[in-house]
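Quick one, T. Sequence first:
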Amino acid sequence: MVKFIHRNMALLVALVMTALAIAGYNTISLLVRHHHAALHDIRHVISVLVLFGIFYLVVRYIQALPEEAD
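Structure tokens:
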């Protein structure tokens, strides 16, 4: 059973991420339709997530660099 789950993990992750994307899109659409000021806050959240992703990638890149041997 563990091998089956491990082998099909990409399919499961794709399914879960698709469901989350659809639910998030519908939630944001309803929120913006009924609360116009929320669009400004949503843009801030998206900006913070993008910055977090960039910082994370920079840190991972620095960690992946080989150490200097003296």
